[in-house]
Design a protein that fits this description.
- There is one protein chain.
- The chain has 217 residues and is α+β, with helices and mostly antiparallel strands.
- The protein has a single domain (2-212), classed as 2-Layer Sandwich (Alpha-Beta Plaits).
- It has helices at residues 7-26, 61-67, 72-77, 115-125, 154-159, 176-184, 189-195; strands at residues 2-4, 31-39, 45-52, 82-85, 89-96, 102-108, 135-143, 167-173, 202-212.
- It has a 9-stranded antiparallel sheet with strand order 4-1-3-2-9-6-8-7-5, with helices on one face.
């Protein structure tokens, strides 16, 4: 998920998200890890990722019940999630692992008829990244548009409509300069277009703010 939070609400948002919201989500069976990342450039943007045991966790009764019964603090904070992009994803390609200091996210889409070609080209590109200085992991996520959807929940009604990403590249590292260089070279718009992607991918770099697992009590 990506969204913006205005500076006036940022301190309370991070307080709520760290001390109530993550704990609430990770108490739901199937949630393995949550991480929140803030704009490395100092902007209003956040990237949040929940890692799950199976994709069906997001249609489970405990999860849907939680979305339909937000806490008073959640009700107060949900309207401050601006420009929400929320995608239910599966991992298509992955090399490396762990949680690092900095994360590059690239939202892209394959050109019509080039899905398999783009996948094959990324299968060649991504495994070379985690061995580079400053970089430790590279992943491709694909949004699962055919999966069952729940009805509009109370949280979504408060927040408004969510946009959706298509394919998502995640590259993690301990050196933001290495990720900035990657974003401006191999993952620049013209280079991704040469691999088979649509024009105008959206690339942003985020710094880790907080990560938590169910074992962190």
């Amino acid at each position: 998920m990506w969204w913006d939070v205005a500076p006036a609400h940022r301190a309370e948002f991070e307080d709520w998200h760290s001390h109530e919201h993550f704990a609430e989500r990770l108490a739901i069976p199937g949630f393995l890890r949550a991480s929140r990342w803030g704009s490395a450039a100092g902007g209003d943007g956040f990237f949040v990722m929940y890692e799950l045991d199976t994709i069906e966790t997001l249609t489970s009764q405990p999860y849907v019940a939680r979305l339909d019964d937000p806490t008073p603090w959640s009700v107060r904070m949900m309207p401050h999630h601006r420009n929400m992009v929320r995608s239910l994803c599966a991992v298509a390609l992955t090399w490396g692992g762990g949680i690092a200091q900095t994360l590059l996210t690239v939202r892209l889409a394959p050109r019509a008829g080039e899905e398999l070609a783009l996948l094959d080209r990324l299968r060649d590109v991504l495994p070379k990244l985690p061995v580079l200085p400053g970089i430790v992991a590279a992943h491709l996520l694909r949004t699962q548009t055919g999966k069952p959807r729940t009805a509009l929940t109370t949280e979504q009604k408060i927040r408004g409509d969510d946009a959706t990403a298509d394919w998502i590249l995640l590259v993690a590292g301990y050196d933001s300069a290495a990720l900035m260089e990657l974003a401006s070279t191999q993952f620049a718009a013209n280079e991704l277009a040469a691999l088979g992607a649509e024009p105008e991918p959206i690339a942003d770099i985020y710094d880790l703010r907080y990560a938590r697992t169910p074992a962190d009590s």
